[in-house]
Each structure stands twice: as C-alpha cells, then as structure tokens.
Amino acid sequence: MSDLTPNVLIVDDEPAIRDMLRSALEREGYRCLCAAGGEEALSILSQEEIQLILLDVNMPGMTGIEVLQRVQDSSSDAAVIMVTANADRDTAIEAMKLGATDYIAKPFKLSEVLVSSHQALERRQLILENREFHENLQEKVRAQTVEIRQQKDTIDALFLDTIAALAVALEAKDRYTEGHSRRVTDYGVMLAKRVNQSEDFLRELERGGLLHDIGKIGTPDTVLSKEGKLTAEEFEEIKKHTVHGWAIVKRIRHMSDLVAECVRSHHERWDGSGYPDGLRESDIPFAGRIIALADAFDAMTSTRSYRNALTVQQALEQVDKFKGTQFDPALAEAFLELMNQDRGSGGNILVVDDDRSVTELIQASLLPQGHRVVVSNSGYQALRRVVEEPFDIIYLDLNMPGIDGAQTLHALRELRSDLFVVIITGLPDDPRVTTMMREGAVSCLPKPFGVRDIIAMTSKFLKEKKERAGAA
Ligand SMILES: [Fe+2]
C-alpha cells in the first residue's frame, strides 16, 4: 500500500470507539485496521506498513504507553496520536516525550480527530523527507569525496607518466643513458626507504629522480654524445644542465621544492667541490645527496661513450672510497649495507630476452643483490644454457625472433621438470600467456617493470623454491 492512501491502525479496547473512528476515517479516504489491545496492535504492525496509529492509553493488558514504547523501539515510522479517556495531562506529556505526535482527550469530536490525523501525517511526511534528504546528502558527499580522491590519483598518475615520458624523451638523445633515469630513481627510492623517509618524500623523490637530468634537453647533441674525453669548455656546457633543469622544473606548477632540489643538486659533492653551487655537507639538500649517490652508482655500472662499465663490486668499492669526500658518508654507508644485504644467498638467474634494455635492467637490479645473472638473447640460446646448467629462475620474454617464449617454454619442459619460469611481456593479455601458465610458468611480469619489481619477484620465487625443496 502506498503513502497516497495512508494506513491507519486504531487501537482501542472499546468496540464502539473503534467503529466510530473507523467509519469517520474511511470516509476521509484512509484505509483502517483495528486492534482491541496492545499485543494485537504490535502483531499487525509487524505485518503491515502503518502510517498512523490512534492509540488508546487505558487498555486492559498492555497500556497505550507501553505499546508506544514498543512502537518507538521497532523499525516502524508511524506517527502516533494518543487517545486518553480523561484529560490526564501528565500521561499526555509523557506520551509526547516518548515520541507521540499528538494526543486527544475523550470524549472527542470527530472533526478534531480528523484534523489531528491529517496534521500528524503531514508532519510524518516532512520528517521522512528530511531524513531522506540528509541521507542523500551524506551519500552525495561520500560519493564526491571518493570521486575527488580518484581524480587526484588519476592526475598524480598522469603527472608521473608525463614526467617519465620526458625522461625517456631525454634519453633518446643519448643512447648510453637508456633507462638511466628510471634506475637512478629506483636506487634513490630504495636508499631513501632504507633511511626511513616518509611516503610523501618517496613520491617526490621518484619525480626528482626521473627528472634529475632533464636540463640536458638544452645541452648540444655534439657534447652529449661525444665519443672520448670532453674539453674544459664542453664540460662547462654539460654542467649547465643542473641549473637549466632546475629552471624548467621551477616553472611547472605543483612541482615541489624537493623535485627542484634533486635536479639542481645532484652533482654537488660532500666536500664542496661539486657544481653548480659548490655546496658542502648538510648545506646540500638531502634529496640531492640521495640522487647524487644513485646517479654516480648507475653511471659507474653503465657503459658510457668514454669508458666501459665497472662491475657492481668495483662500483661499491668506489662508493666506499669516496664517502665523506664525494658522498654523504651516512648515506654511502646505508647504500653499501643495502647493496650487500642479501649477498651469499643469491640465486642463479637466466634472463631470456632480445631487448637489451630489459636484460640490462634485470642485471643491474639483481647483481647488487648478490644474484648471478646469465643473459640469453634468443630461445635457442636459452635452451643451450639450460642443458649446460640448472637455473633457479628463468625470466622468459614472450615475443622474440626465432622461437617465441611459448615454444621455448615447451622445449624447456622436455629438458627439465623443476623449472621456475616467469614470463616477461608487454602483452599480458596475449593468449599464449595463458598457455604458458598452463604449461607451468609460475608468474607473468608485465613490461615495463622497475628494479624493485624484479628484486621482489626474484626473492619471492627463490624463497618458494627453497621451501619446495625443503618439503620434498
Ligand atoms: Fe646529471
């Protein structure tokens, strides 16, 4: 029954009064139900949707006040008009306190009952509308808060994507620095975590790391990609990238000072001999000191136009040697600890990918962790390696010239049964991924991935492999 025809429940132990109220109210278009006592009234209420109750106070058994209390405790939102036999004001006041809308004293005029019923229903309607309005309002505020948060996350993600794209665009100018900004960022963030920096700091440092060399956009290509040693003049030209980059970043709204500091200060040295400002020790912004260390470490372990890469061990020796002169000594110590922490428990890892940037990233990520990393550029090469020796984990690219990852995995399974193969692919939805998972691949790592992803996945599966061996 809808609210358009209100249901009225008449509760009175006197049949004559029930009948009189019923016929008067029905004439007005109400639908009436009657109860001779409290128990019956509550039973009707539990089954019917009632909008208004005319409730006698004095009844045998449960009194009207008791019924009113039970109605208020129930889920019913009916308006209640008390009908008292005498003009007992105290009872009436008590009833109003308990939530009754109105009261009528017997003997009553029918017109009085009709007016009071009409007003009670109107008041009830207002209360319900008001309640609904507030509930809607709360729901609206909640929904909008969620939406604003989502929008902010999207903007943050877009912002970071843009920054990453800028970094990649920059690296396209110089083939020796491919992936450099991403690796510097990953090393920097790992180091900052190691020295307990906040989530906010890590987020800004990520931006700073990606953008640290952005000023090189203004450096002439002839200088940037020169084979061999730079002249003094050319070196002066290179040095300008810190200040150029800082000026670029400063112009971007919402870019924090921390990001600008990474860009400007990542070539400062602890002893004051760096550039562009020759700052010393703690005068160098903290984020700049972190990126300086990460940048130098990646530069040492990468091949440049003028020299070959150092091994990770050699680079760590350099960090140790230059702590206190080039590097913040406390940060250098933390970095050495970080890079040495898992040594000795390293795994034997095979990376199968024709993309050099991927194999180099995995090498640069896992070698510092003490793992041995062997690289194969094709499926055939991988098969030969696997015949020669067992590997703990094989990172296997899906799309390669010659036999692809799926065919390689199929052939590998003929050779060895205890394989831990992780698929690496830019196409995680490719149906071949499903086939490979069915053939026993343990996971799929979508490209692009970072240093931290590869480190986390490697330790996860080494642990699993150890547990499996222990259980066997
Ligand atoms: Fe730089």
Care to describe what's here?
The protein starts with 6 loop residues before the first strand and ends with a helix. By secondary structure, it is an alpha/beta fold. Helix content is 56%, strand content 10%. The strands form 2 sheets. Strands 2-1-3-4-5 form a 5-stranded parallel β-sheet, with helices on both faces. The chain folds into 3 domains: 7-136, Rossmann fold (3-Layer(aba) Sandwich); 172-341, Orthogonal Bundle (Hypothetical protein af1432), CATH 1.10.3210.10; 342-472, Rossmann fold (3-Layer(aba) Sandwich), CATH 3.40.50.2300. The protein binds fe (ii) ion (FE2).
Please supply descriptive tags for the structure shown above:
472 residues; alpha/beta; elongated; Rossmann fold; five-stranded parallel sheet; 3 domains; binds fe (ii) ion; Hypothetical protein af1432
Q: What's the β-strand tally? A: 10
**What percentage of residues falls in helices of 4 or more residues?**
55-70%
What coarse outline follows from CA principal-axis ratios? elongated
Q: Which strands sit side by side, in order, in the main sheet?
A: 2-1-3-4-5
CATH-defined architecture of the largest domain: Orthogonal Bundle
Identify the CATH class of the largest domain. Mainly Alpha
Structural class label: alpha/beta
CATH superfamily of the largest domain: Hypothetical protein af1432
Count of DSSP-assigned helices: 18
Averaging pLDDT over every residue, what do you get?
Answer: 87
What integer value in Å does the Rg equal? Answer: 39 Å
- Examine the coordinates and then state which fold CATH places here, giving the name of the CATH topology of the largest domain: Hypothetical protein af1432
Strand content: 5-15%
Task: Quote the distance from N terminus to C terminus.
Answer: 69 Å
Structurally, how many domains make up the residues?
A: 3
